[in-house]
Predict the structure.
Amino acid sequence: MRKTYGKILPGMNLSELSGKLIVLEGTDGAGRTTQINLLKTWLEERGHAVLDTGMTRSALAGEGIRRAKEGNNLGRVTQSLFYATDFIDRLENEIVPALRAGFIVLTDRYIYSLMARAVVRGMDAAWIRSIYKVALVPDAVIYLRINIDQLIPRVIFSRGFDYWESGMDVFPGQDMYENFRSYQASLLTEFERLSMEYHFETVDASPDVKRVFADLQRKVLRIVESDRRTDYLSGRSEQAANPLEKLTETWTARSWELKVKDFDTLLRTAAAHAASLNGNGHRVA
Amino acid sequence: MTTGQNLRIGPFEVFCPVAPAIERSPQIGGQNFPGKLFVVEGIDGSGKSTQLSLLHKWLESKGYGVVFSTWNSSPLVKDTTKLGKKKKMLTPATFSLIHATDFADRIERSILPLLKAGAVVLCDRYIYTAFARDVARGMDSQWVRELYGFAMKPTVAFYFRVPLETAIGRLVTARDGFKFYEAGLDIGLSDDRTESFRLFQGRILAEYEKMIPEFHLTVIDATLPVEVQQAQVRQIAKTHLDRAKELRVKP
C-alpha cells in the first residue's frame, strides 16, 4: 500500500494507487526535463501510459506563480506556500488520479526541490517538511547529480542566468554569476542532505545525454518491472483463449497487491481486456 | 535502511520518515517588535467587522498610526484565489494553502514591517479563521497549525462569541444568499445552500470554542449592544497601548 510522509489529505484513498510514481530531482540545468521527455517516449513505446508533470503546471496556481515571479516582491514564505499550493493541486488532480488509473507518473521535481529552495532561503526545515507530510512517498527518487563547475557552462550556453535560478532574491549584490554560484552551491549542499534523508538513487548527470539516459533506463526499468503488469504488457500471454481466462490470470497476477478484493478494479481490467481482444481471442494493436 | 516509523491514522497505516511531532515552527521576525497587533475573530454575522472598524476610528482619533488589513486581500495571490473559487477548483487542501499563501504575503510585505515600525495593525480575521474553516473542511488540525507557524502572536485576539441562530438571523436579513465556499457546499453537507451554511458555520463555531483556551482568545459577548461591546474592546486595547506611547504618529 502506498504511503505518505505522515499525514493524509481528506478524501484521499491510498489503497488503489497501483501506478508508479517516479521522481526526477536535480538542480537547475541538470537535464531533468530532457531526460523526462526521453523517458516518456521510451515508456510509451513499451506500452505504458505515462503522465509527466512538473512545477507550476497546476491549473490553479501555475499562472499565479508565473505572474508573481515577474515582479520583485514575492517573499520567501509566500513563495514557499504558493509552490505548495501548486504542488497539492497537481497531487490531487493529476498525480493521484493517474496512479489510480495505473499510469507511470514521471515528475520533474517533487517536494525535495521545494524543501531545498525554502531552506536555502532561510526557512525552517521542520516547517517546510510539516507541509509536505501529506505528499505520497514515491516509488523512486532519481537524483541527477552534477557539480557547480559542470553546471555553469550548461547554463551559460543554453538559456543564460535567470533571476530566480541565480537566487537574486536571496543573495545581496547584483553579480548574477557570483550569485548563481553561491545559490546553486547551497542548493546542491541541501540536495546532498535530502539525498540521505529520503534515499535518493543518484545518477551522474555530467556525461552526455545518451549515457545519462541509459543509466536512467536501467533504474526506471527496475521500478516498472517490479510490477507484474509488465508480463501482461510484454505479451507473454497473448494467446489467451478468451477474456475470462485472461481475467483469471490478471486476477492472480494482481492479487498480491490487492489484498482487499477490489471488484471495481477487477471489472475495469476485464472490460479493458475484453475490448482489446478480437473475435479469436488475440490482442489487436 | 530507512529511519522512521509507521503510524496509524484512522484506517490507514502510513510511513513517517521524520519525527512526527514538531513542537513549534519558528516565527519569522520573532516576537519582539514595538507595534501592536489586534485581531478580531468570529463566525459570519458575529459583528466583528463593525467592532474593528469602530476601534479603528477610535485609535485614529487618539493619534495612533493605524493600519487595517483584511483577510484574503494580497494583490499577488487574490487572482488565484478568485480563479479557484469561481471555477470551484479548490479542495480542502488547496483552499487551505491558497489562503495561507495570501496571508503570508500580507505578513511579509505589510503586517511585519508595520509592526517593526511601531504601527498598530488591525486584522479582520487572522490565523484562527483558517484553523476553524480548514478543520471544519476536514483538514488535520495539527497540520494547519504547523502551516501557519510563521505567523506572529497577536497582542490581543478578540473572539466575538454569538449563538449560531443569532448570526444566521443577522445574515439572512442582510444578504440575498451565501456563496459556494462560504456555505461549505464543497464538502457536501447538504444540497440546500442555507442549510449547508448553517451546518458548516456550526462546525466552525465548534472549532472556535476549542480555540478559546488553546490560544487564549479574548471572548466578547457579541449578543450585547454594539456600544457595550465596543467599550469593552477599547478598554482592553487601551491597557496594551498605555505602555506604548511611542506609537503615536500625531501629537
The radius of gyration of chain B is 19 Å. Residues 43-244 of chain B form a domain with the Rossmann fold fold (CATH 3.40.50.300). Chain B is about 45% helix and 15% strand.
